[in-house]
Amino acid sequence: MKKNILYTIRQYSIAASGFIMLLLLASCSSNGNQQEHTGNHATETDTVVGMNKNSKMEDHSNMDHSNEKAKEHQQMDMQPARDTLDELYLSALPANQSVISKQSAVPVKDSIQQFTITGQGYITFDPRRNRKISVRIGGRIERLYVKYNYQYVRKGEKIMEIYSPDLNTYISEYIFIRQKSNDLDLMKKAKQKLLLLGLSNAQIAQIDKNPAAPFTISIYSPFEGYVLFNPSAASSGMTSSGSQGGMGGGMNGGAGAFTGNASTSLDDNSIREGMYVSKDQTVFWINDFQTVLGIVAFSHENEKIAKPGLEVVVKSELFPGQTLRSVVRMVEPVYRGAQKFTQARLYFSNPNRKLKQNSLIRASALVNSGSLIVPASSVYHVGSTAIVWVLKTKTKDGSNVFQARAIRTGNRSNEYIEVLKGLNSSEFVAKDAGYLADSETIIQY
Questions:
Q1: Residues 133-166: pLDDT tens digits?
Q2: Between these two residues, 182 and 440, which has the higher pLDDT value?
């Protein structure tokens, strides 16, 4: 019985193991078929993807080729527009640099043109006519009859009374020699000494009548003209170089300025009663104003033209209906008030003293210039820069295309302006530059 049971169990185990083996074999075969199927599917997919990639590459190459052709056609379409100057292309130019207008264009001329240069100025004292008034002996000013600058005095007019102890001593010696000595030669020498000290013959005759030394001695003007306390200021910084004289006219002293102490004059070189003067001190100058000096300043462009020898026509504000003629005698650079400029000297004869100090004048001169010229209306000033609108081309409808350009100008008249740089004789410019500019536009040139 036990043997049969063991046998049966062994048979079942053998059958079970066989069944398991069959299952394992079946499983292995199914996995192999699945892997083969999967591999075949991957191969098919790669083939399809490769075909798609090739087709896309062909499509991209076709698109690039078509784009290049489109660009070529576009360039070919744009080139005739530029060559024929299409209105649309010209309208797209910068508005602050190019302008399309129906305004007429005028040629740039190359010819000899006569220009009129002008300058403004004033009349002042001629320093060559300054005459020096100096005292020949020291003392104190008791009375002063010259009160203000530019005061007019006549020849022989009393200008001051001075108290001088030294002069009183010399007068006392003359009186003593006249009363106590019969030596005519000694008396003549004493009188000559008083004359050299500034006394006149009339004053000495008065001393002969009243033999007493006066308290003060009167000083008389040896010249006629206008009193100048500071001639350098009156002549705009120019030094005086006139002939020299003194009381009675003959003896000079000093060096054209006050030679006394600083306390003997004021800041404006004027004098006052009560001041002390030293020997040979210049108290003021006198100018007869028979010849006057005109100081004229020309513009920066005309400085090189205003040369010595240039004939000018001058009009004064005192008599605008009359004209004066003169010649530029000297051109000098001046630095005053932190500014540097050039001024010309003109001399005028003024016998009747019609021309007055600091009266305004206007000088003009004609000069010939051979260079490029344009109408005055063709130049437009942008600050300190002068520009013109140069003709570049024409549109289909006949409008002119102008472009801004900076130039350097020279002489100018009422009609024309000289162009020194920036234009050629073969070019054309707009006739009226002001009509092509907008007040709110920043012009590029």
A1: 888 888 999 999 998 888 999 998 999 999 998 8
A2: 182
CB 252 within 8 A of CB 244: yes
Least Cα distance to 348 among 307, 314, 305 occurs for 314
The answer to whether the Cα torsion of 413, 416, 417, 420 is positive or negative is negative
CB 127 within 8 A of CB 235: yes
Cβ-based burial of 204 (10 A; exposed 0-12, middle 13-18, buried ≥19): middle
d(CA 350, CA 123): 11
DSSP for 38-53, please give it: HHHHHHHHHHHHHHHH
Distance CA 181, CA 61 (A): 143
Cβ(103)–Cβ(377) under 8 Å? no
Question: Model confidence at 407, in pLDDT bands (50, 70, 90)?
Answer: very high
Query: Looking at residue 342, what is its pLDDT?
Result: 80
62's tokens: 């076709």
Give the pLDDT score at 362.
93
Residue 102, in any domain of the structure? yes
363 occurs within a structural domain: yes
Domain housing 46: 16-83
Q: Are residues 162 and 40 in the same domain?
A: no
User: Where is the domain boundary, 248, 266, 287?
Assistant: 287
Task: Looking at the structure, tell me whether residues 135 and 267 fall in a common domain.
Answer: yes
Structural domains of the chain, count: 4
* 243 and 167 belong to one structural domain: yes
CATH of the domain at 344: 2.40.30.170
Task: Check if the beta carbon of residue 328 is closer than 8 Å to that of residue 344.
Answer: yes
Do residues 204 and 196 touch, judged by C-beta distance below 8 A? no
The predicted pLDDT at position 418 comes to: 85
Same structural domain, 244 and 375 = no
Q: pLDDT confidence of 383, banded at 50, 70, 90?
A: confident
Print burial letters for 119-152: b (CB count within 10 Å at least 16), e (below 16): bebbbbbbbebbbbbbbbbbbebeebebeebebe
CB 258 within 8 A of CB 264: yes
How far apart (Å, rounded) are the C-alpha atoms in residues 348 and 357? 13
Q: Provide the β-strand partners of residue 122.
A: 295, 360
Write the CB contacts of 118 (distance below 8 Å, at least 6 apart in sequence). 298, 362, 363, 364
